[in-house]
Amino acid sequence: MFFVTIAPPAFDVDLDLRYATADNLTGRPIFARPLCLLHPDAAVALGRSIRLASAQGLRLRIFDGYRPPSAQWALWTALPDPTFIADPRTGSSHGRGVAIDLTLATPDGTVLEMGTDFDDMRPLAYHADTSISVVAQRNRALLLGIMAAAGWQHYAYEWWHYQLPAAAAYPLVEDGALGPPLMGSGKSSPG
Prior knowledge:
Layout: E1 4-5, E2 14-15, E3 37-38, H1 40-55, E4 59-64, H2 69-78, E5 99-105, H3 134-149, E6 153-155, E7 158-163
Parallel strand pairs: 2-4
Antiparallel strand pairs: 1-3, 4-5, 5-7, 6-7
EC number: 3.4.13.22
Active site: 158
Organism: Niveispirillum lacus
């Protein structure tokens, strides 16, 4: 079993892989390669999400999928807050290839208003936050409905994060073990 590369044309999505750029909470690129990888089970669920979004006249824009353990360490070092960043000693659903961070966009690429940007680590990013605009609340609810109908579970503290049910039952995967390496050499270490 190898991870599935999520990219057009096989997957009709927009990619905005923030951890391959400096536009993330660390302020520097974490991944050496801009790839979105998912466990095959998650790729199937993503396919359902794409079809449901398309039926609403929308597209999915993906920020992150599989995240190697060494990338999790980089995020934890920048923000060691378990509300927003899974402790790398126990691993995250991203490190298992069964989580995805994403938003909704129109067919022309305009991102729907969600009240905050991706990786905004404040209570404003909570799914149930009502201090954001009504439009943003509706858009979050629309994203939640699409993802839930496709078989994903949401994370209450990040409107963009979804994972497969029983995510912890999937094994953690080292960079390059089940697909192309994201970190460069394919080797990972804490730090």
